[in-house]
């Protein structure tokens, strides 16, 4: 069953991860395929989207931002947009960890429905579902900077495979 979950990210974090590959594995995965970082998009205190990414994933997501940027019109009214935290009741927590197979990045834009003042990151899951995350310009800049560090292997504290 295809589902779409959408929220506005109020915080973003990128932290290094260490992956230990079991010695009983028939075929060792490529280093680029192993996650080296965990991206976390939060919406208030009750919603978090966690995405493990490797260097190839980070490069692909950075390329998606690069491809989307030229399609962004000049919109001064979009620069002041601030996300609102998810309106989940206290005590209810959603922790989303999809198996991402694709991502689209859409810049702020003028649409038929009006102005879309935020970046939209749409993560496609292997079951056909999608998680859409709205991020501000400032948060988008932090995401791209973190992706750059991940793709260059410069994320502080990361040990990589087998550490």
Adjacency order of strands in the biggest sheet: 1-11-10-7
What's the number of extended β-strand segments? 12
Task: Specify the number of helices.
Answer: 2
| Average of per-residue pLDDT values | 87
**Largest sheet geometry:** 4 strands, mixed
Strand content: 35-45%
Share of helix, binned: 10-25%
Q: Helices and strands, in N-to-C order? A: EEEEEHEEEEEEHE
Number of domains: 1
What would you report as the Rg, rounded to the nearest angstrom?
17 Å
Shape: globular
Q: How far is it from the N-terminal to the C-terminal residue, by CA?
A: 38 Å
State the secondary-structure class.
Answer: alpha/beta
Low-confidence stretches: 158-163
List keywords for this structure.
163 residues, alpha/beta, 4-stranded mixed beta sheet, 18% helix, disordered C terminus, globular, 2 helices
Task: Give an account of the 3D structure.
By secondary structure, this protein is α/β, with parallel strands linked by helices. The protein has one domain. The strands form 4 sheets. Strands 1-11-10-7 form a 4-stranded mixed β-sheet. Strands 2-4-5-6 form a 4-stranded mixed β-sheet. A hairpin with a 4-residue loop joins strand 10 and strand 11. Helix 1 runs antiparallel to helix 2. It is globular, with a radius of gyration of 17 Å. It starts with a strand and ends with a strand. The C terminus is likely disordered.
């Amino acid at each position: 069953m295809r589902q779409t979950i959408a929220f506005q990210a109020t915080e973003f974090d990128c932290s290094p991860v260490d992956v230990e590959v079991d010695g009983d594995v028939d075929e060792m995965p490529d280093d680029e395929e192993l996650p080296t970082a965990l991206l976390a998009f939060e919406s208030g205190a009750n919603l978090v989207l966690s995405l493990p990414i490797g260097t190839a994933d980070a490069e692909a997501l950075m390329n998606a931002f690069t491809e989307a940027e030229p399609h962004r019109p000049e919109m001064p009214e979009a620069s002041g947009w601030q996300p609102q935290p998810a309106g989940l009741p206290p005590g209810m927590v959603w922790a989303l960890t999809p198996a991402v197979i694709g991502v689209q990045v859409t810049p702020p834009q003028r649409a038929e429905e009006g102005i879309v003042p935020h970046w939209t990151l749409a993560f496609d899951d292997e079951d056909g579902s999608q998680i859409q995350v709205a991020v501000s310009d400032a948060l988008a800049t932090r995401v791209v900077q973190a992706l750059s560090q991940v793709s260059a292997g410069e994320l502080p504290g990361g040990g990589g495979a087998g550490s």
